[in-house]
Each structure stands twice: as C-alpha cells, then as structure tokens.
Design goal:
heterodimer, A: alpha/beta, TIM Barrel, two-stranded antiparallel sheet, 10 strands, B: alpha/beta, 3-methyladenine DNA Glycosylase II, Chain A, domain 3, Rossmann fold, eight-stranded parallel beta sheet, five-stranded mixed beta sheet, 17 strands, 40% helix
Chain lengths: 324, 448
C-alpha cells in the first residue's frame, strides 16, 4: 500500500498586496512587487499555490550609521550619508527588490531632521531607484506623527509602504496612507491579539486588507528568534484557517537584528570560542532569515549584500520546487 | 492523542469483577486514562484488547536511542507539527561526517575536534552528537576501530555494503551505533545485521512510497528502532517530504512513518550549508549530517537548534536573587536585570568580559526579557523594589546604588521612591556594560 499524501484542507488564503505604482498606475516606479496569496504553509507545493515569492528589501539609513561592524560597513562606507546613492547601490549592485528607507535622522534625540528634510530624502530616493519603497519613521511617536504626512505626500501615488502603525499610534500614519495611496505596516509586539487589534483599528479607518503588511517585533538567531518564529507560524496558520484579520502578508526585520548581536561583531580575540569574525555576521543574518522564511514571512528586511545573495538563492530553490 | 476513559472502557471485559483491585471496569478505565493504573493489572483483558489499547496509546513517533551510556543520543518522540502547540522534544542530533579515506592522523583530529566542540549558551553547554563515518574507500571497520578509541560520541556507520558494515559493527560491539542504511538493494542483509547487533537502523527509500514499504517491511521483521531517510537532497523536495512524513506520523499515526528522520546538509559552500542546516533543524529532522567543522559555522546551527527546541511554554529561567560576577565586595556596583536566562547570561557575559566585579540582582519576571517584562508589568518599580528588599543585597554593599537597564530608564524615579535606593540608568544594551563602567559609572555615582 503506498502512502497517502496528507494534505490539509485550508479554508482561506493570504491577502495579496502590490507595492509600488508604475507610470500607468499613477506613480513613477519601473517595477512593482507583489507578495502574499499563499494557499498553504511556506513552499508546500504539493498542497497549494505559492503564487508570489518572498522578497528582500534592503535597508537604507538617512544618516551615517554608527557602530556598524567592519564586515558590514565596508559595503556602504562609500555611499552612506547619501541615501539616494545608497539606494542605487542596493538596487543596481545588490539586487534589492525594495528599498526600506529608515528616517532615523528625524529622531529628536539624534539629528532631529525636519519634515521637509525627510520629504526631500524620500524624493531623492524615489528619483534614484525604480523599485518600490518602504518608508519607516524614526520610532518616536510624536515626531513620526509630525513628519509622516509630509513623507507620505512626498511619495504620493507611488504605493509605498509606510511604517509603522501601532496600537497606540496609528491614526496619523493611517490617514496619510489613505490620502496618498500607500500601504501601511501594522506593528505589534510578539502578541497575535495585539497584531489583530491594530489590524482592526486600521481597517476601521478605511484601510483595505490588501494594503496592510504585518510586522511583529523580530529578534535574531540566539536572541528570541524562536518567539518570532512561532508567532509567524501561528499567524499564518490563523490566516489559512480563515481569520480575515490575520490574513495580511508579513514582514521581518533581519539585518539590524542580526548585526547588533555580539556573535556578529565581537572579534575572535574576545570570543575565541566563536571562531573567525569575518563570516559570522553574514552567517547570522542568513540563518535568521532562513528561519523566518520557513516560518512564513513575505518580506525580509536585510543588510549585508552577501547575505542577500545567499537568501535570494534559497528563495529561488524553494520556489522552483515541484509539487510531489 | 491520549485515549479517553470511554475508549478504554469499551475494550475492557465490563464484568466489574474487581480482580484489578478497583470495584468497576469504568473506574479502572478512568485510572488507566489518567496513567494511574497499568493494563496488566486486569487479569481478564483479551489479547486483542491489549494490543488495541497499547497500539493506540503508543506515542505517534518512536524515540530512538543511538549509542549507550552518558553520551547516548535520543531522537524523535515528536508529538506536534508546530512547536507552539506543545514543544519539540529530543533536540535533533548533529552528526559530523568523517570520510574513511582520510589519512589516519586527519581522521583522528577531525573526530577529536568534533567531540570537543562545545558552546556555552544561556548557561548551558551544547555540542555535537554523532560521528558519522562515511565509508568512501571500503575501510569502515578500520575507521570504526579508530573511532571507538578516539570518540566520546556515538557513531553512525555509513556504508551500503553489508560486509564492511558487519566488520564495523563487530568492532563496535554492543555500542549501538546507527547503521546507515538499508535500501531496497541490501535490505535483508542490513535487517539481519540490525537484529544481530541490536543496533538502530536507518532505512533509505528512493521516494516516499519506497520508504514507506521498506519501513513496513522492517517493522514486520521486528526492527523497532528505525530512522527514515527519504533521499530528498534538494531543499524544496526535502521540505515537502519532511512535512509529509511528520504529518503522516503525528496526524495520521501511520506506524511505518512514525520514526525520526535523517537529513543531509547540502550546499555549494560552507555558508550555503548553514541555510540547508537551518531548514532541516526547523523542519523536523531527527538527525542532521554535515561536513561543517569550523566553530563559526557550527555555532549558528547549534544556536538554531537550541532556539527551535526551546520549550515555548517554559522560557529558560534563572532563579531570582543575588548573583556574583567576579569577586564583588562592599564597594562593587549592583546591576538589576530580569530572570530570563538569555537576559541574565548576556549581562553576565558582558560584565565578565569587562572585568567588572559586580552584584547582579535578578528579578523574577517569569522568564521574560527587560522590555517584555516591563510591557507586561512584571518588571516595575514595585517588583524591583521588592526583590531588592527581599534578596538581602543591602547587607552586602556600603552604598545603596542600583544600576537599572537603560531600556526602562522611565522607571528610575519611581524605583528610587519605592526602594529607597539611588538609581543610576545603565546602558540600553547589555553589550554597553563594559564601556559604561569604564567611562561613566564613577562620575554618575559621585553625587551619592
């Protein structure tokens, strides 16, 4: 007797989201990115369709990064301080599917850049690259509420993703996204109920389910990756089981999480038991990304070009698999 | 899934004879369901009933032991498809492949390195689990001889040739190495060897159907310690096969699939192999075989395994109370942190790395990190003040100054009020501890 293939009968599929708008669609992007639409758990081709591959967004900071370890910094030293050039390098040389522009300079405890300055940066990045943009505030709620309407306006019609709406702070960013035709990142701590709550709040304001990306705080290999891994799995299972308010595609921050842990930067002299430093950060970013991919993430936000290349190859392999 | 009392009751004689020491069959069934009685206490149960009850109460995936003694490796025994549903049991074994064609010195060195590769993470030591001797030149018995002398880890013997396999098994005696593998071509001979040497046996099928058939045949032959190899080596096929086997075992309770799997790490270079390894670790492999041996490549695999196999219902915790780092005295600083072991051991490692003698006061936050505990209100001015008060740190130091994690700087005022201690806000990240004590701390406490 041969084995009967055990297939789950999922009742629903993940929302499809398209990021970026071409000229015909009212924007200026030369390419768009479509994610979501999965009818099964990651890459189970025998069970259902995975119509869109997971994508890689590369991070661009609007200020010169501090404390980046040498193996990472060496790839960006020539462009940092110039977000447009940085974005161009990420796309032309490293093949980023999207650019994740982080407006860290707006932080009142840091550069305290003005809304106009941020809007200008966005404009310059939009002109420099043809791929879609994720525009992420500095993380200070009040300041983000000040700048986001202008940032949103600067990219009006381009179908960017704006980040991030939280349970306590979603109205301004959501109104901006609605007004200018963007998508939105709904962020929550590692808690499915809070994620769902943010999704409900934002849809109550009129946001389409297809214009929402979920982000639940990530963690990195060795430092909480297992929490994020299980939250991603649980959220995707809920989506496939028909929970409409958890059916949006998911995003994971990998690069900044992986590169801040000691394994990624502590020199071998200080940590001989971890072996040579050279590849450790890249490996850490890759391992973290791999776990998230298999837990159902749709957008990986990454940093190191080599890590991006390896993970892209892995996505290729997983997507080219045949149903058995 | 566990049987209910009613399921069990249906299989009992229903005579209420009381010979088991319990007045009624139903009461006996209830005891059985709760695991407080054993079926052999009933002298009248029929053989068919016993078989039915035993069969359906058996765990869906067997636990297989490789090797003997302290270093023996248990794999399998899984009960769920997703770790959040319960936990993954028996962390997968990581086997380092050693080719038998290596010159003796190199082989010896590789085995020694593998046996001594250990990492200290969250206060525990993690290492590798198996030496996989790959017979690429027909010298498996000689290699096994060397390995039994050198290796502290159990062995996995890789050869398709029953003759050399026998030679190696004879060398290993009753050490229960894993025999890899029985395929369609050498099936009967390998089965005979597994029986003769009471060793666990890997079954290799060219596809899932063949794997199923061979596993069924092995069960019929009376071999119960099996490990399954679906022969999928390409990541996309592998993921699907692994998922199907795990579902067949756990959801469908298909006995021939109810065994741990073995997977081989693939990839064009060392970094690509990490990806393959992470996939196997996350997706149900019972054994992961690799030729990676450097510490920078094994560290992420061992860490991934630790993370995936951590019990999600029980974060690893340390006990609340006072901890000493270095040799603290009455003038040493007092650091406050939570009892999530990852948090504590990170603080411990960074403080030691900075050569700082310090007291660490650990607050019971039910095993959550500083920010999570703060958000959940388990790490508040009150809980911290209570711990400071109860742990007796006051008697160990001259001045009442506590260093609070920078992430919860917002608590400092309240904490001063609640505890009566002066509070210095430390770095946000534990990694900033050495620099903080080198540059800022003395200045910050000067006012007190």
């Amino acid at each position: 007797m041969p084995l009967t293939i055990p297939k789950e009968r999922w009742t629903a599929e993940v929302q499809t989201a398209t990021i970026g708008a071409t000229k015909d669609e009212g924007g200026t992007r030369t390419s768009t990115v479509t994610i979501g639409g999965e009818q099964t758990l990651p890459f189970l081709h025998f069970e259902g369709e995975t119509p869109n591959r997971p994508v890689i967004a590369m991070e661009v900071l609007d200020e010169i990064p501090t404390g980046w370890p040498e193996p990472l910094a060496q790839h960006y030293e020539d462009v940092w301080g110039d977000p447009a050039a940085w974005a161009r390098k990420a796309v032309d040389e490293f093949g980023a599917d999207l650019i994740c522009l982080r407006l860290l300079s707006a932080d009142p405890d840091g550069g305290d850049a003005s809304a106009d300055q941020c809007a200008e940066t966005i404009q310059s990045v939009l002109e420099a690259v043809g791929v879609p943009l994720i525009i992420w505030g500095c993380g200070n709620d009040d300041k983000d509420n000040d700048i986001m309407p202008f940032c949103s306006q600067a990219g009006a019609g381009e179908r960017c993703i704006l980040g991030a709406a939280t349970e306590d702070n979603y109205k301004t960013i959501c109104a901006s996204a609605l007004a200018d035709g963007h998508l939105i990142i709904n962020q929550s701590p590692l808690d499915i109920n809070i994620q769902k709550q943010v999704n409900i709040l934002v849809t109550d304001m009129g946001m389409d389910l297809g214009d929402i990306i979920m982000y639940q705080i990530t963690g990195s290999l060795g430092y909480g990756v297992e929490y994020a891994y299980s939250i991603l799995e649980r959220t995707r299972l809920a989506a496939l089981d028909g929970d409409r308010m958890l059916q949006m595609p998911m995003l994971s921050i990998v690069g900044s999480e992986a590169w801040r842990v000691k394994e990624a930067w502590q020199p071998e002299e200080e940590a001989p038991e971890w072996g040579p430093l050279e590849r450790r950060g890249i490996i850490w970013e890759i391992a973290t990304a791999t776990l998230f991919l298999h837990a159902a993430t749709d957008i990986l936000v990454m940093r190191h070009p080599e890590a991006v290349a390896y993970v892209r190859d892995h996505i290729d392999e997983m997507m080219s698999g045949q149903p058995i | 899934m566990a049987l209910t009392a009613m399921d069990i009751y249906k299989q009992l004689p229903k005579t209420n004879c009381g010979d088991c020491g319990i007045p009624t069959c139903l009461a006996f069934a209830m005891k059985l369901a709760q695991g407080q009685a054993s079926l052999d206490e009933c002298p009248h149960v029929t053989e068919e009933a016993a078989a039915a009850l035993e069969g359906s109460s058996a765990p869906p995936m067997a636990t297989v032991t490789i090797g003997i003694g302290d270093q023996a490796l248990d794999i399998g025994g899984q009960t769920v498809l997703f770790r959040h549903e319960e936990t993954f049991h028996n962390p997968c074994g990581i086997a380092v492949q050693v080719n038998t064609s290596l010159p003796e010195e190199e082989m010896r060195e590789r085995i020694t390195t593998a046996c001594s590769t250990e990492f200290d993470r969250v206060g525990m030591i993690f290492g590798l689990d198996l030496i996989a001797l790959n017979d690429d030149d027909g010298s498996l018995p000689q290699a096994a001889q060397l390995a039994t002398e050198v290796s502290t880890l159990p062995l996995m013997l890789m050869s398709d040739n029953p003759g050399t396999m026998r030679g190696a098994l004879e060398v290993c005696g009753d050490g229960r190495p894993l025999i890899y593998a029985a395929g369609a071509d050498n099936f009967d001979e390998m089965i005979a060897l597994a029986k003769e040497f009471s060793s666990p046996l890997a079954i290799r099928g060219q596809d899932l159907d063949e794997l199923y058939e061979l596993s069924e045949k092995a069960l019929d032959a009376g071999i119960e310690d099996l490990v399954l190899d679906s022969c999928a080596r390409e990541p996309a096929t592998l993921l699907q096969y692994q998922t199907i086997i795990q579902r067949a075992a756990i959801n469908q309770k298909i006995k021939p699939m109810g065994f741990p799997t073995i997977g081989f790490i693939t990839g064009d270079d060392q970094v690509a192999k990490i990806i393959s390894g992470c996939e196997l670790i996350a997706k149900y492999a019972g054994i992961v075989v690799t030729d990676l041996i450097t510490r920078d490549t094994l560290l992420p695999l061992i860490t991934a395994r630790l993370n995936i196999y951590t019990d999600p219902q029980k974060p690893i915790q340390v006990e609340s109370g006072i901890y000493e780092i270095g040799e603290p005295d009455a003038s040493s600083p007092v650091l406050i942190t939570t009892n999530f072991s990852l948090t504590y051991y990170t603080v411990e490692a960074d403080t030691s790395a900075g050569n700082i003698d310090a007291w660490v006061v650990v607050v019971d936050t039910e095993g959550t990190s500083v920010l999570t505990a703060w958000a959940a209100e388990d790490f508040t001015a009150e809980t911290i003040a209570k711990t400071i008060d109860e742990c007796g740190i006051e008697e160990k130091v001259d001045s009442k100054i506590a260093v609070l994690p920078g992430g919860v700087a917002v608590l400092s005022g309240e904490l001063e009020d609640a505890s009566g201690w002066n509070v210095v806000v430390g770095p946000r990240e534990s990694a900033g501890i050495p620099a903080f004590f080198k540059t800022e701390y003395a200045q910050r406490i000067a006012q007190y």
